[in-house]
Amino acid sequence: MRGHFANWTAAAMAGIVGAGLSLASPSAAADDTIKVGVLHSLSGTMAISETTLKDTMLFLIEEQNKKGGLLGKKLEAVVVDPASDWPLFAEKARQLIEQDKVAAVFGCWTSSSRKSVLPVFEELNSLLFYPVQYEGEESQRNVFYTGAAPNQQAIPAVDYLMNEEGVQRWVLAGTDYVYPQTTNKILQAYLQSKGVAAEDIMVNYTPFGHSDWQTIVSDIKKFGSTGKKTAVVSTINGDANVPFYKELGNQGIKAEDIPVVAFSVGEEELAGLDTAPLVGHLAAWNYFQSVDSPANAEFISAWKGYTKNDKRVTNDPMEAHVIGFNMWLKAVEKAGTTDPDAVIDAIVGVSVPNLSGGFSTMMPNHHITKPVLIGEIQADGQFETVWQTAGLVVGDEWSDYLPDSKDLIADWRAPMSCGNFNVATGKCGGKGTTN
Amino acid sequence: MQFVRGLVLAIAVICASLPSLAHADEAGLRALLTRLATTTNFQETESVVRDLAATGEPAVERILSALADGNLYVRKSDQGVFTGKEDGQTLSLSDPLDGTAAGTAAKADIVKVKVNNALRRTIRDVMGGLTLGSADPTVRLSAASTMLKRPDKTALPALDAAIAGETDATVKAALAQARAAAVLVSDLGEAEKRAAIAVLANRGDSDALAQLTAFQAASTGALAETAARSVAQIETSMAAWQVAQNVWYGISLGSVLLLAAIGLAITFGVMGVINMAHGEMVMLGAYTTFVVQQAIRAFAPDLFDWSLAIALPAAFLVAGGVGLAIERGMIRFLYGRPLETLLATWGVSLILQQAVRTIFGPTNQEVGAPSWMAGAFQLGQLTITWSRLWIVLFCLAVFLLLVFIMKRTSWGLRMRAVTQNRRMAASMGIRTPWVDAFTFALGSGIAGIAGVALSQIDNVSPNFGQGYIIDSFMVVVFGGVGNLWGTFIGAMTLGVLNKFLEPYAGAVLGKILVLVLIILFIQKRPRGLFALKGRAVEA
Amino acid sequence: MIARRLFSSDRRIAVTIATLLAAAVIVPVLNLAVPAESAFHVPSYVVALAGKYLCYALLALALDLVWGYCGILSLGHGAFFALGGYAMGMYLMRQIGARGVYGNPDLPDFMVFLNWKELPWYWLGFDHFWFAALMVMAVPGLLAFVFGWFAFRSRVTGVYLSIITQAMTYALLLAFFRNDMGFGGNNGLTDFKDILGFSVQASETRSALFAASAVALALGVLVTWLVVGSKYGKLLMAVRDAESRTRFLGWRAENVKLFAFTLSAMMAGIAGAFYVPQVGIINPGEFDPANSIEVVIWTAVGGRGTIVGPIVGAIAVNAAKSWFTGALPELWLFALGGLFIASTLFLPRGIVGLWDRWQQMRATRAVPAEGKAAARTEPQPAE
């Protein structure tokens, strides 16, 4: 009887721990490769955007290996699927760092997924390159933000509409997410600082994946019929955009009457749309596929060759990965090692060519410098640049238009090495009431 | 600028009346065109556009519309300006003035003359003047509505001339309204303005409201009061239309819900299978539409307007076939264990999603709208989009067809017999396995044709079905499981309720409120709106 | 006395509890005391993962109490889990204090950058662990009580009940997505630092959390076993198998259900509370109806209407998911979907049912008489 009992216990124990342990089998690959983690959702709601970024990383790694790899070793991609499930992001990040011992991770799309993995990267001291535009208000030692901060996208777009199109009335429409909420807070403060009256700003939020836009589009139409030039600033999240634009087109809102400027609509999203009725609506990014530069032409043809698909488009987050990956390569070469601390020290100031013909530099706040482009949608699903900043814009992690963050800066170089240094109190740690 | 525009209009009217003066100065136009090749910013291009328009030549219309459509190119080698038509990797060029062919050029050898919204607006405005005398009444109508939106007092003489010469009643009314808007911004006397206010108040839509509000703000005294009264009058009538609009939006949302739920009303409502793969059947229908359209684009572009009609039977067969396979391969082993169908169909749903993702890729696919579904029309102050109208009609047709099948055909009788009392039906000689299989296939097939319609308003992506599955279950349960009319009333009620809540509570809170109301409603009527009665219910 | 009853009558439950308690001791020791090079070392990654599985197992057990034993198919149990998680998350947020990025001692970061001026009233009290611990059970319990009180009294049953539980979790999902609710919107609550004064990132804390989860699950098993084995448990199954008949016999079926539903929701809340510090984030995604459906699937795969089944199912399915998403990132949904279909078709009584049958077969082959006695079967639910 006792023996039987022990057998049972042993079997059940094996069940619980073994389930975990079996995952922990050390990977067979030897030390002659440097592993790079790719943490993008390949299933679930975000797969639509993130799968392309996984392909981009595989493409970049293959290209680099053709050039001889890094530090004399080949690069090896470790791809996992966090399935658009935020806690799973944290689990997969931990697996990549602890088990697969990757040198750096390229990944995440939504802010939720980034927030979910942040503590893991901090605890295990590894590197994350985050390629998507986001709300700012963050600077972390282990994270490099290669997408746009609000001042690299939202504010120039509003400036353009105000100056070039003479817009006086604003609809801020977004998905009820943290990114749209923060961006709209910043924009509201910015618009009011430019003398726009409160009644000339309409803020509207919709649930995730909203597909019935009839009411909102007709509200926008009504809001825009007061005789003052009106524009929509859209922070509507990926999936909801297609029905939104379809409704705009059907209700006959032309870009000449009420232009819509979007921050989350790129070439990839437009690929699912007939863009003829949308010609003239705008998007603000740091890169467009249509950018006319030799580096871009070369990249596009290599990408199309790699995917063996002549219709594959390129977009801004892809460029962010290109920049981030090249920066990491350069920093590792500079440091002579993939050790995260050495790379973090080496990468600040590293400058690599971006695809729009200039150079992007990693700043001490772990954001990068980028040009800001405003493009209009064309009938072929591409954007045409109608305006761009004269020079590069430095990513501003702490917005100047939010009262609690305007005194904060981030500088990860020694001796400051702080993500939330308060210039008013001269202390690290936000408002500085403690420490 | 105002002056230039007025001049343009005056000239335009004269040109229209005296066609012999056209073709006067081709050399001058060519000179202006070459300036287009060297512009570096939008302001410069705009000045060229204005100069072009000022010539008043009919050929300018062709140039400007090519420019607005982004079809005007500059050849890098000789700075020649051409209109281009895309033809694969090359463009076929033609002369912008007379339209004669001018060879082809590779994309790399030419540059497009860039336009932006502001420029397109300018072009539209100046063309408004040019096209006021157009032979096509729809062009004249759009010119009039442009001029209503951006009134210009210098355009008054041109408008007067146009009104005098106009024969089409609709266009004439639109011109009169455009003139009224222009009068309001002019220096004309009070009587004229009073008449103008009346004309605009009569129009009574948001465009008129915009002009009157602006006028009211700018004027004082009795005129301002008259304007204020008209504004109030328009606002009252628009509020009434607003209710009608909400009802229409509600019906339109309701028919989307009904389309999504109607297949489920059969597989779940009638058969009792908790079909979590229902959304994927809708998705298969949408992807079938995509494939059909791709095929049509490749082999028979002329048939594109028929693509949805062709996709309907295809989608029915594809989704129905998959449904048949699921029923034969899996669900038939699970009858009598309805909750377990939930698990198995959930597995099917994962597999179908991933299969579509593997075959078509994870990104959205473009499903085009046939020309008869694009755009909108006005019904009073209501803007009704064609796509929504067709969806409502299509949804009604599908629903009535289904009711007919279930209630009036022997097949439907068998279906109902089997679902109500399987053993009795079997002993009456009905081959219950086949009825099961075909009922499930029918439900799936209908989900498939719903996908064809929904592909017109939503993303076609592997997640397509996920967006509808919860709403579909809510509709079926709210209406009462097993009752087609319940599903119909349920969908429409939820649609209209949602649309009436949305303006007050916002889209997010509105949706939450609807869900809470459903929960409360089920407490009141635990078997939905139209509960089935009798012993079969308890089984 | 309970212990004696356990060992004498229900060996499988005893083994499960013993295993969990043993794991609560051994896994932390193997993680902390054994050097990393040793073959016996359990990496921190596995500790965190296994801890997460145990929380899922407790959630599945909670669902099984209502579904397997009382016939209430809840498609909204994820909501109770998430509410418990949020209660714990709010405590953890308050523990950050002035260490947030803005250094604001009074407000969590997400409130600072959305310009909130003061802490909403419903955040008050969460500075104290005892209060949060109370809320972990009270909030899901209260919601379940109110919801159940209405639903069971109105005799909402079967699929109608399932769908309105789904509506409940969906409505909560949308509500918690709203930034105006003051729960951090879609980003949720994250960036935790301390729990009870210990850093959540330290491996000692992780091990302790794992041990606590194991003990909580063991307690959950014990409580479920006691409830199911009691006279009330018989009533529960009577309601499941023939609700009208039970009612005609004079029992208040709605009260029987209400008790089970509330107890189950509280268990789910506790599971959520242990889950949050181990994964480091709680956000509205946990309310997703799809998550609740997954819980149903774990339970079914393991074997519903048994106590061990949901635990085995939750661990097996999640381990499979963890492994598939790493090993077959492109194809894992095929594998998982196939697993669900196969287990429904071929394992109608789940893994535990398969094990039972195997035991039965082995026993009948060896010693027919004793085998029948040994292969005790759990009462099987009817549909």
TrEMBL record, chain A:
Which keywords, in A-to-Z order, does the entry hold?
Signal
Range of residues in the leader sequence: 1-30
Gene3D superfamilies tied to this protein: 3.40.50.2300
- Which InterPro entries does the entry link to? ABC_urea-bd_UrtA, Peripla_BP_I
Question: Per the UniProt record, which residue ranges are transmembrane?
Answer: none
Q: Does the keyword Cell cycle apply?
A: no
Among the Pfam families in the record, one is: Peripla_BP_5
The source's superkingdom equals Bacteria
- This protein is called Urea transport system substrate-binding protein
Species annotation: Aminobacter ciceronei
Question: Taxonomically, what lineage is the organism?
Answer: Bacteria, Pseudomonadati, Pseudomonadota, Alphaproteobacteria, Hyphomicrobiales
TrEMBL record, chain B:
Membrane topology type: Multi-pass membrane protein
- Transmembrane parts of this sequence: 247-274, 306-326, 338-356, 389-406, 433-453, 473-497, 504-522
Pfam family membership, one? BPD_transp_2
Keyword Transport part of the UniProt annotation: yes
Q: Which residues form the signal peptide?
A: 1-24
Location(s), subcellular:
Cell membrane
- Which top-rank group of organisms is this from? Bacteria
Record key words, sorted? Amino-acid transport, Cell membrane, Membrane, Signal, Transmembrane, Transmembrane helix, Transport
Under the heading InterPro entries, the entry gives: ABC_transp_permease, ABC_UrtB_bac, BCAA_transport_permease
Q: Family, per the entry? A: Belongs to the binding-protein-dependent transport system permease family. LivHM subfamily.
Q: What is this protein called?
A: Urea transport system permease protein
Source organism (scientific name):
Aminobacter ciceronei
Automatic annotation (TrEMBL), chain C:
Q: Do you know which CDD domains this protein is assigned to?
A: TM_PBP1_LivM_like
Instruction: Give one Pfam family, short name only.
Output: BPD_transp_2
Coiled coil stretches, renumbered: none
Q: Does the keyword Cell inner membrane apply?
A: no
Q: Which UniProt keywords apply?
A: Cell membrane, Membrane, Transmembrane, Transmembrane helix
Q: Report the transmembrane regions from the record.
A: 12-34, 40-59, 66-88, 129-152, 159-177, 208-228, 256-276, 331-355
Q: What are the subcellular locations of this protein?
A: Cell membrane
Q: Which InterPro entries match?
A: ABC_transp_permease (IPR001851), ABC_transptr_urea_perm_UrtC (IPR017778), LivM-like (IPR043428)
Membrane topology reported for the UniProt record: Multi-pass membrane protein
Mind telling me what this protein is named?
Urea transport system permease protein
